[in-house]
Every structure is written in structure tokens, then in C-alpha cells.
Write a sequence for this structure.
């Protein structure tokens, strides 16, 4: 059972997961590249169940660890401290931000397979990558709530996936197992399950893509139950790897 969640990356997605974890009664250890001091406000905001440390501290102290950093930093994750741990990979490949990664552009490996190759002694499970941090914060509901949403998870280790599913349950989500890390492209950017299903309504006409995305972020959204996640991931067709961030130059 997870009682302490380690967070490597304490930005939009890391801090949202931390808020959900503390609300569910877990302890969290947050980390970033700068220093634990720079996380003081966030730690104060989260309360007595939150602490800040280095990425290696978060890796060592967490029963389970979330990697929520820009994808191009995955080789900076503290592999030795993460050995033997289940690591949730919340990262996505965005070439504009991360630079071009030939292995991914060739569609040979998924981004999570690359992370698993690097973290050879950890059990990598992809999760939290297919929902915006705002939807993730908004849509958590207790088990049995008719408005409960689900999130896809993928991984090569069955026990690790069970551990992650139990964490999601604690945080307010059902988990849908979509297969191995080789299958995790089904929840990557540009697939039907990615981000959009949790958005509600039509944005006003005349907005550019960045404004339209912002409009959706500020709207409350809709629940996406497990059956819908299953249908969307089953019908996905693999396309070009990598997402597109409106407002950034194209790589
Ligand atoms: N934002 C979303 O809605 C969302 C949703 C799903 C998935 N994701 C994915 O989640 C990842 C994080 O996205 P984000 O939006 O949360 O980014 P973000 O707000 O920019 O936060 C990134 C965090 O990672 C830290 N960081 C960067 N490199 C690090 C390293 N090598 N070791 C430890 N910490 C490091 C940063 O700390 P410093 O500032 O100290 O460098 C910062 O706390 C990305 O791969 C993204 O594609 C994002």
C-alpha cells in the first residue's frame, strides 16, 4: 500500500497529484531541479503531510514515485535511487519542447519504453499523462460516485500496475489497463483518449488553437468513465509520435 508518494517534478502535474494525494491522506515528498527551498510555498500550501527534498530523496522515500518532468529530462531521473521502485511515467513527448528524438519519431518505441530502458531496475507504469492537470484536479471523485472518471494505465509488470491502480483509486479515479508499455502509444498525444474527452462543450468560434485550449482549461469538463476510456484506447490508430503545443514554435 502506498503511504508516501515521491514526486520528481513539482510543476503543474506534479503539484496536482500532490494535492490529490494529501487530500487522500498520503504523505508526499516533492522535488525539482532547483532546490527544496524553492518548494517552500507549495509545501506550506499542502500542509503537514508534505515535505520537499532532492529528486533522490523523493525516489528513496516514496513507496511509489511519479516522474512528472519535461520528457527530455528523463535521463536525469535518479536511476539508482529508483531501483526496485514502481515509477509512474506521467511524461509526454512534445518535440517543440523536448527536441526531436529519433527513436520516437521512427515509431519504434513508445516514450515510456525509452524511460523503462533507462530505469532498467524499476517498474515503469504510464499514467496521468493523458489528462490536463486542471481536469485531473477537477474530476477526482470517491469510488462509487456516478461522476467518477477513469484514467488509462500501461506497464509491463502486472503487480506494479495493480499498485498504480490502487493509488488511482485512492486519489479518486478508476484505472483502465490498456496493456504493456509497447501499447502505451494508445494514450499518448494525438490519440482519441488524450485530454479532449474530459473537456465539455464547444469553444466559442473564432479562437485560435491556443485560445481554444485555454477556454477548455477554464471550463469544468465532464466525467469520462472506464467504458469510454476502453473504447477510445481500443479504437486508437497509431500515428506520428509527439504532441503539438499551440503557441510554441514547431521543431
Ligand atoms: N501540464 C499538464 O496538464 C500535463 C498533463 C499530463 C502530462 N504532462 C506531462 O508531465 C510532465 C510535466 O509537465 P508539467 O506541465 O507539470 O511541467 P511543468 O509545470 O513545467 O513542471 C515541470 C517540473 O519538473 C521539474 N523538473 C524539470 N526537470 C527536472 C529534473 N531533471 N529533475 C527533477 N525535476 C525536474 C521542474 O522543476 P524546476 O522548475 O526546478 O526545473 C518543475 O517542477 C511533462 O512531460 C508533460 O508533458 C503534463
Amino acid at each position: 500500500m502506498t503511504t508516501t508518494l515521491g514526486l520528481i517534478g513539482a510543476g503543474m502535474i506534479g503539484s496536482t497529484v500532490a494535492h490529490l494525494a494529501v487530500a487522500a491522506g498520503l504523505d508526499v515528498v516533492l522535488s525539482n531541479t532547483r532546490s527544496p527551498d524553492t518548494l517552500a510555498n507549495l509545501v506550506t500550501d499542502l500542509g503537514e503531510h508534505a515535505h520537499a527534498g532532492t529528486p533522490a530523496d523523493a525516489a528513496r522515500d516514496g513507496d511509489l514515485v511519479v516522474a512528472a518532468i519535461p520528457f527530455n529530462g528523463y535521463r536525469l531521473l535518479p536511476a539508482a535511487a529508483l531501483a526496485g521502485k514502481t515509477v509512474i511515467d506521467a511524461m509526454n513527448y512534445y518535440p517543440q519542447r523536448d527536441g526531436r528524438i529519433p527513436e520516437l519519431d521512427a515509431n519504434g518505441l513508445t516514450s515510456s519504453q525509452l524511460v523503462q530502458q533507462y530505469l532498467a531496475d524499476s517498474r515503469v507504469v504510464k499514467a496521468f499523462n493523458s489528462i490536463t492537470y486542471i481536469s485531473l484536479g477537477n474530476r477526482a471523485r470517491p469510488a462509487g460516485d456516478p461522476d467518477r472518471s477513469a484514467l488509462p494505465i500501461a506497464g509491463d509488470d502486472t503487480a506494479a500496475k495493480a499498485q498504480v491502480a490502487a493509488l488511482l483509486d485512492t486519489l479518486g479515479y478508476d484505472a483502465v489497463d490498456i496493456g504493456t508499455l509497447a501499447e502505451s502509444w494508445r494514450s499518448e498525444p494525438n490519440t482519441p483518449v488524450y485530454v479532449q474527452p474530459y473537456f465539455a462543450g464547444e469553444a466559442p468560434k473564432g479562437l485560435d488553437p491556443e485560445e481554444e485550449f485555454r477556454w477548455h482549461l477554464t471550463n469544468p469538463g465532464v466525467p469520462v468513465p472506464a467504458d469510454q476510456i476502453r473504447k477510445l484506447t481500443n479504437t486508437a490508430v497509431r500515428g506520428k509520435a509527439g504532441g503539438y503545443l499551440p503557441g510554441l514554435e514547431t521543431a
